[in-house]
Structure formats: structure tokens, C-alpha cells
Design goal:
Two copies of one chain form a homodimer.
Chain A lengths: L8 H6 L27 E7 L2 E6 L4 E5 L30 E3 H6 L1 H13 L2 E5 L7 H7 L4 E2 L7 E3 L15 E4 L11 E9 L6 E5 H11 L1 H9 L2 E7 L2 E7 L2 E3 L5 E4 L16 H18 L5 E4 L6 E5 L3 E5 L9 E8 L1 H26 L13 H14 L4 H9 L24 H9 L5 H8 L1 H11 L3 H4 L2 H9 L6 H9 L3 H13 L14 H8 L2
Parallel strand pairs in A: 4-5
Antiparallel strand pairs in A: 1-2, 2-3, 5-16, 6-18, 7-18, 8-17, 9-16, 9-18, 10-15, 10-17, 11-12, 13-14
Helix pairs in contact in A: 3-8, 5-6, 5-7, 6-7, 9-10, 9-17, 10-12, 10-17, 11-12, 12-17, 13-16, 13-17
Chain lengths: 535, 535
């Protein structure tokens, strides 16, 4: 990437990652765009292997680590981030998972959520056939969006239906709640019974239909995209009204939202259009409607009890065939939720996997080298400490702290110029480990890690005979770490809320240097670590 | 209005209000736009005082009552439906109400909600200074939108804040959660304590700021409106990202949404812009930011305990000054909600008022005329019936049924060609009253009204001596109403779920023809009717 400092100073300065400009935790920007001086310029810009360093005309210095501005993907809500489909694309089955696997396996969970983002839907099977489970599914990745239909709604034949959905009639492909703004961006439908003749489900990719319209009749596409249409719904307690185009575009012209619902399109107000546009609008609307109904676009399937369908209500149209109530019943429970939380949950799942992979790589890479002259490797030492914590019945956070307490000795690349006799480099490995873990783990993990070196200094003071138990390497590093605590320091440490936990970790630490002891694998601790990361 | 049938057949047909085309209850459209034949044309169109009648080429007939297409206002979410403001516009005080008045008086409630739509905010005072009351305020007009900050969030100084809001620092004008899509469109902040020096609140009308930018620098406005900007937020459990322009326009170019939040604007990805646009974007962004900070735009005020601020988070920027925690405390509780439900609640409040006004006008107009030869007017008759029901301790729905049972004798304009001896016109006044009330009242009101004529026929059969109690006018109409029920009819009526209620109404009906009896006013019953209409 070329050095853009000279040509785009505000952009570059706006992205300064220093702790004065960005909160280390969370990354919130700490200045206002208007705080930057007029005429800002880069006085000096140097680039090397570590990245780009800029000295600014107002005296600020910024360092941009190499790769800081990796190209971002497209906006994940537009057509460019989607896999547009027709029914035949799912000839080998629908994307989804078993509910039990979804709950147990983060990879399964990520795959299901990714499918909702990419293909617009996923099917969970084996969700317990009990009322209100649909809310549990929604809460597994986000928040329920309550509407006038309630927190959840029952889709079944009702005696005095206010809505076609609550009859046994066929329902043509449509998006839900177009008369809401914000429209619920996700819908869930959980099947409790479906033993009537008919009542099959259908999905149509509205983005695909819009793309076809654009390809076949660009003028019609443009007209639908630039004509706000009134969508309305009213009953005794509700009067909702929204004006939005059938095809919503982002500012660059990419399809970002489809609203399609014959039942609630109330076009009387379109009389305000230019006469030519009014007829052209209807021609375009009818053309789009015809594309939506093309058989090759409609994916038909049948929900069985326990199936829960998740779909993107800003993109997919859903439908059902008519059914005959007769002796059988068709009963779905539905609710709404939103894509942003789903997407966040997926991003955190992926980030968690990446962090665990990175930690595992540390154990298998640097961690497999010699550990400060001890008889075990650094990785074996940490794994043994975790095994001891686990065997002692320690809570998960302390098992994790024992497992990760010495990752401050790793640098990712080369090992830290490791604690030579009397040297200082090893001193702060508790702090550096805690700082590295803090974005991902709660304080119950990071505090004992941070304090495990101090715990050694504390125990040397507070516990007669403790110092004699230290390994020769540990004795060597003690001086560099500050030596035994003063009585005042020891009293303060004992009063620290995490002091006792740090001492516990320290004891497992001391005991985890036995070349003959069984050493578990890192993989055994992944579920425990993942659980803590999302706590 | 010109007759548009010939020139815009699809539009007109799409708006056919007949019960085959629109569900009488709710108004959902019952056909698909693609169901209309190609080449649809009006074969015949005639217009008279009752409206426009059209015969279509496919044989369908439509009747459009006069005034069916009254011009609609602008989309209520765009700048065109708003009162744009500067701080001085509120020199005489902030829009709002006391919480008690808001709860008790529908006019106050409507005024508060209307102010949120028009001015972007309102202040409720005297909300109980108790935790979680902010949720109660939100639920008074809509639904709480849960986010990663919880169902509600506490705004106060926190020990380890992930967000500047949870410190004592000043917070510059911003919109909340720009990294969510859908963004929460409403925010509520309820003040529980505010006794620190500082910590005043500020609001800025972002639509006004955008309008100023457009006036002063149209190119900058256009650039901000067409440049999606990445907004991001991440912490241990969340990773949210949205690309939206700072100024969102509807397809016609009207301002519809402002997102402004320095803290979460992450512009690294803007490197993909054309180089000239990148610098121009920053110039525009800084110019907009400078407008937002103009003192005359910022409305400053101080929240007192019990104050609850409601504001449109798609339009208003909110801010606060720094405060000194010291001995005092500043504690707000906030939650998010959405404008669509607020708008619906306001529309229903207004519709309810309009319906009650219309009913009251019936009582004072047509109702004040002679009532089928009885000694009291129609209005006095109905009011007496309601008074009797009330005195008997009847539930509200039956009081309402007694009050409204005979509105089928009114036509709005001329009174129904009122039940002459032996004529049929009076027969169906129960049905017509029920049909008129059904869009607004629950079946517990409309069913006894519908059945109160049948109840007379029932009682003539089931209760010896009842017929003798009828007034001469009532005897006259009995024959036209079908005479006494057959035993089978009477058995079916007795088994009807609303049969007993209809009989009760009927007895008050019979007793409410006393010129000497006290007659309450319609106004006394308005709160009861309103309550039923929203039940």
C-alpha cells in the first residue's frame, strides 16, 4: 500500500491507533473530528517492517502497525456480500444443523449463523416441540423484537383472523411487517404441528429477484428503487404506516433491502407521482411480482415438528401453500429478531475461535521450547498447572488462569529475551500476559495471571519456608522481580480481591514442573476457555 | 379530483375498497398485483355525489366513496414532516408533560408523542424516582428494544468503563448505537439522581444541522449523503459493524436519518474512496461537525430526578457536560425503543378521539331528535340505558353496549328512514350499529349491540308477560323485526355466548324511556369508551 500520509492527512490521523486517540478497551475514538486543527499535515512519515510512523504538524505522533488497513469486505447487508440463489441450488438439502449440535458445537453454530447472512436462511432441526422454544432459539444469538403480534405469535387457524396468516389460505411470497420502520430484520418460525394436507413452506431470494429485474428491465428496477411506496396495517389497537421503496439500495446503488407484501401495499398516495411514472410504476411492480413467482426461484419444503426456520426478512420472501385443517393441525410459533445481533454473535464466535487457535499455536510453537532451564517445556508447565487446578476442583476461571499464566513468556514470534540471571526482561510477564488476555477474558482470569509473579514475592514474605520450595530458575528470577515483598506490600497484596486466587495459581505454578507428570492437551481446555470468553 | 380511471387503471384497481379486494377488518389487500389481467381497462366510469363507480374490462366493479383518496401528508420520518429547531425555539420551555397527566389524559399523551415525532423529543416530569421506571415509560407507547447494553442500562460512573458514557467525562453530541442496523430509533433517559456539579444535558437537531449544511455547502451535503461510513463497536462479547452514510436520504432526497458518533466512526475502509473524494469527505465531515457544535443549535437543560427524556435517535444528537462525581451522584437509567410503535400509539389515540367525537356528535345531532315516537329523544334513551347499566354494576363493555345500542338508528347525515309501522328499515339497526362499532370496540361491546333486537324477539317468546311491557313504538316494530322467536330460535339464542348480555342490554333498553329520569352526558362515558377501545 502506498504511504497516503501526505495526500490524505485527516483520514490517516482519524485512524491513529495510539491509546490517546483510541480507547485500548473497545477501540472507541477519543477525539472529535473537529478537534483536529485546520491545515493538518504530516511533517515526517517513515515506513519500515513494523509499519508507518508519522509526525504531525500539531506535534502528535502516530504509529500504524503493518497491515493496519487490510481491505474490508463489502457491507455484509448488501447483495455483494450474499450468495444469491435459486431453488435448484439447494437440491442437496437445506443449510442448517441439529439443535443439539448447534448448542454444543461452536463451529456448527457459526455455520448456521453464517448461512443466514450468506444465503438468507437456515433450518434448525430437533428443537424441542414445546411452546416458546422459538424465543430460546432467538436468544441463542440475539434479542427478540416485540411487535403488535406479541413477543411471539402463533401461526394457526384462528376464529376471527385479523391477518391472512391466521387462516388456512395460501399465502403468496412476501416479507413481513413492511409497515414497520425499523422492519424486523429476522424472522423465526418454529413448527409444533404440521399434519394437515398442504401447508408447505416456500422461500424466494428477493435479492435474486431484484437482480433479475435489473438485468431484464433496468428502468423498471430504477423506478421501483426510487419510488417510496406506502405500506399500511391497522386493526383496533394498531395503525402502522411506512413509506419505503420495494427495492432499497445503499448510496452506491447496491440492493440492501426488499419489501414485498401485496396485502399491505396501500398505493392510493401514489397518485402524487407524475402520471407517466404512475403507469410505469405499475408495469414495473407487476414485472417484479411476476419474477418473484417464477417457479425456479421458489424453494419449497415442508416443516416438520421441531424444525425452526430462521430467515432474513429484509431479503427473503416467505410463503405457504393452502392447507385443509380437517382432522389435522398446523401450528407454528414465530418471533422476530434482528440481523445485527446475529452478525455480532457470529463475529464473536469467529474471533473466539481465532484467539483459541492463536493460543494453541503458542503452546505448540514457542511453548514447546525449553522453559527457563526447567525440566519441562513452557507448554507442559502451563498444561500441568491447569491439570492441577482442575484436579483441585478450582472454578473454570482459575483453571484458565493456571493454563495461561505464563503466556507472557511468549511473544508470538521470537520468545521474549527470556529471563537471564539478574536480567529485567522476565519481570513483567504477568502484566504482559494479562494485557494480552484482557480483550478476551474476564478479570477473574486475567487478574490472577497478572498477579502470579507478585504472589511469589508475597509468599516469600508471608510464608516461612516457601522460598525454599522454589526451583533454581525461580530463585534466579526472584531478584529481577523485586525480591520478597516488604511487610506493607504483603499486607496490601493479601487485601487485594484477587490476591488469594493469584496465590492459588502460584502454588499450581510451583508444582507444575515435573517431567514425569501426565500432561493434558490444550484441546481439552478449549471448551472451558470458550465458555469464559463469552461470559 | 379528476377521474383517473381511464389513464391509470392499475393504480385505481389496486385501490378498490370492495370486500372482495380488501379485508373489511384490517384492510389487508386480498389479491396480488400480478392477479390483475394484462391490458386492464375501465369499461365505464361514472362519478356522482357518492363517489366514483367503475366497471372493469374483467367484469369487476369498484366503487370509490367520495374523498377516498384524500392527499396524504409527507412521510412522517423525513425532514418534511418535522419542525426543525434551534435552541432559542424552546425559550419558553421544553415540550412535555407531567407523568400523572400523561397517564390520565389522552390529550396530554397524544401531545407528548406528537412532540417526539415533530420536534424529536419530549420531557416527562414526575416519573417515579425508582429503578426500571424507564421501561414502564417505554411500554406506555411501545416496545423496549434490547441491545448488548441490556434491556435497560445505567448511565453513571463505572469502575472499568467500556464506553465513555459510563465515565464523568463530557460527551459530545452524538447519536447512539450507530453500529446497529436497525439502529434503535428512540432513546429514553430517566434521571434518578443528578446532584453533582455539571452533568447537564444537551440536544441538537441533526436534521436542522443537515439542512444548514445543505444550504451552506450543497456539495458537502451530497458527499456525506452518498458515502457509507463504517461504524464499529467491539468489546468482549460484541462485535458490531454497520456501513451507513452520516446523512441518510429517502429516495427523493429528503433527510430521513442522521448518524453521528465520533467515537465509533471507523474510517480505515474509506481508503477505498477515490482520492479526491477522501479529502472532500473529511472536509465535509469536519464542516458538518462544526455545524453540529454551533452554540445556537444546542439546547441545554438539566435533568432533575423524575425527569424522563424521550428522543428520536435517528434525528437528535444528545450530549452532556462533564461532571465532578465527588460527593454527589449522577445516575440515569436508559433504554431504547422504536418510533413506529410510538407513531402507531399516537395514531390510535387520535383515531379514538375522532371516533368518540363522531359518536358524541351523533348524540348531540341526530340523537337529539324524536325517537320513534317515544317520550325521550334517541340520545336520552341511550344515555339512560347506559346510566341504568352503570347503576346495576354492569361491566364496562355492557355499559358501552347499553350506551351505543341504538346508534344503528343514526346515519351520520339523515336519520335512517325510521321504522314506520310494518316497514323493514328498522329491522337491522342492531347489525348496522355493530358493524359500525366493530373496527373500534371489542366483541364484548358489539355482540350485545348486534343482538339487542333479537333479544326482544327472544324475550317475547321466553318470558311470559314480557311483550306486555313493551312501549307502543316497540310493539309496532316487533313485527318488522320478525315477531317473537320460534322455540328453536329461542333455544339457539339462549345458547349464544352473548345471549345473556344482549338480554341485559334489552332490559335497560326497555327501561330507558322515562322523560323524568336523570340523563347523564355523553362526556361522562368517554373515559370508559376509550378504555374499551384500546383493550
Amino acid at each position: 500500500m502506498p504511504v497516503p500520509a501526505a495526500s490524505h492527512p485527516y483520514w490517516l490521523r482519524d485512524n491513529c491507533p495510539c491509546p490517546e486517540c483510541r480507547a485500548p478497551r473497545g477501540g472507541q475514538k477519543l477525539f472529535r473530528i473537529g478537534d483536529l486543527p485546520d491545515g493538518l499535515a504530516a511533517v515526517e512519515a517513515t515506513e519500515d517492517a513494523t509499519g508507518l510512523t508519522v509526525r504531525w504538524s500539531d506535534g502528535h505522533r502516530s504509529h500504524y502497525p503493518a497491515g493496519w488497513n487490510a481491505p474490508a469486505g463489502p457491507d455484509e447487508r448488501t447483495e455483494h456480500a450474499k450468495r444469491l440463489w435459486e431453488a435448484a441450488d439447494f437440491a442437496r438439502g437445506l443449510p442448517g444443523a441439529d439443535w443439539a449440535a448447534y448448542l454444543a458445537d461452536p463451529e456448527e453454530r457459526a455455520a448456521v449463523l453464517a448461512s443466514v447472512l450468506r444465503s438468507g436462511f437456515a433450518l434448525l432441526r430437533g428443537v424441542p416441540v414445546e411452546e416458546r422454544q422459538v424465543l430460546r432459539v432467538a436468544r441463542s444469538f440475539g434479542y427478540v423484537r416485540e411487535t403488535n403480534y406479541g413477543e411471539l405469535f402463533d401461526v394457526r387457524v384462528e376464529p376471527d383472523p385479523a391477518n391472512l396468516a391466521f387462516t388456512s389460505a395460501a399465502v403468496a411470497p412476501h416479507t413481513d411487517n413492511p409497515y414497520r420502520d425499523p422492519v424486523p430484520t429476522l424472522q423465526l418460525l418454529h413448527c409444533l404441528r404440521n399434519d394437515c394436507p398442504g401447508g408447505d413452506s416456500g422461500l424466494v431470494d428477493g435479492f435474486r429477484a431484484a437482480a433479475l429485474l435489473r438485468a431484464e428491465d433496468p428502468a423498471a428496477f430504477d423506478l421501483l428503487a426510487r419510488t417510496p411506496v406506502p405500506f399500511r396495517y391497522r386493526d383496533r389497537g394498531v395503525e402502522l404506516s411506512v413509506e419505503k421503496p420495494l427495492i432499497g439500495l445503499d448510496p452506491r446503488g447496491a440492493v440492501r433491502e426488499v419489501r414485498f407484501n401485496d396485502r399491505s401495499t396501500h398505493t392510493a398516495a401514489l397518485a402524487a407521482l407524475a402520471p407517466a411514472d404512475l403507469d410505469a410504476f405499475y408495469a414495473a411492480h407487476r414485472r417484479f411480482a411476476a419474477i418473484v413467482l417464477r417457479p425456479e426461484l421458489r424453494l419449497d419444503f415442508r416443516l416438520a415438528p421441531g424444525d425452526c426456520l430462521l430467515f432474513d426478512n429484509t431479503r427473503l420472501l416467505h410463503a405457504r401453500t393452502a392447507f385443509e385443517p380437517g382432522d389435522g393441525h398446523r401450528h407454528l410459533q414465530g418471533c422476530y429478531a434482528d440481523l445485527d445481533a446475529l452478525s455480532s454473535t457470529l463475529a464473536v464466535l469467529r474471533r473466539t475461535t481465532a484467539v483459541l487457535d492463536e493460543l494453541e499455536a503458542l503452546f505448540e510453537g514457542e511453548g514447546s521450547r525449553e522453559y527457563l532451564g526447567e525440566a519441562v517445556t513452557l507448554a507442559a508447565h502451563m498444561l500441568q498447572a491447569a491439570a492441577l487446578a482442575r484436579a483441585a476442583g478450582a472454578p473454570p476461571a482459575l483453571v484458565a488462569a493456571a493454563l495461561l499464566h505464563d503466556i507472557g513468556h511468549c511473544r508470538g514470534g521470537a520468545p521474549e529475551a527470556a529471563a537471564g540471571p539478574g536480567g529485567r526482561p522476565g519481570d513483567r510477564h504477568g502484566e504482559s500476559a494479562a494485557a494480552r488476555l484482557a480483550p478476551h477474558f474476564p478479570p477473574a482470569v486475567t487478574e490472577p495471571v497478572r498477579l502470579h509473579v507478585a504472589a511469589k514475592r508475597y509468599l516469600c514474605t508471608a510464608e516461612p519456608g516457601y522460598a525454599d520450595l522454589l526451583s533454581p530458575a525461580s530463585v534466579r528470577t526472584l531478584a529481577a522481580q523485586g525480591g520478597p515483598m516488604t511487610p506493607d506490600e504483603a499486607a496490601a497484596f493479601a487485601a487485594h480481591p484477587s490476591g488469594a486466587d493469584a496465590v492459588a495459581v502460584r502454588r499450581w505454578d510451583e508444582a507444575a514442573k515435573d517431567p514425569a507428570a501426565p500432561t493434558p492437551s490444550f484441546a481439552e481446555f478449549r471448551p472451558l476457555l470458550r465458555e469464559l470468553m463469552s461470559s
